[in-house]
Amino acid sequence: MGTLKIIIASKAQSDLSECVGFVLNVSKESAYTLANDIFSSIESLKTFPERNPIFEMPNSFPFTIRKFVINKRYIALYAIEDNAVVIYRILDSRRKFDYLIA
Question: Which domains does the chain have, with CATH numbers?
Answer without folding.
Answer: 5-101 (3.30.2310.20)
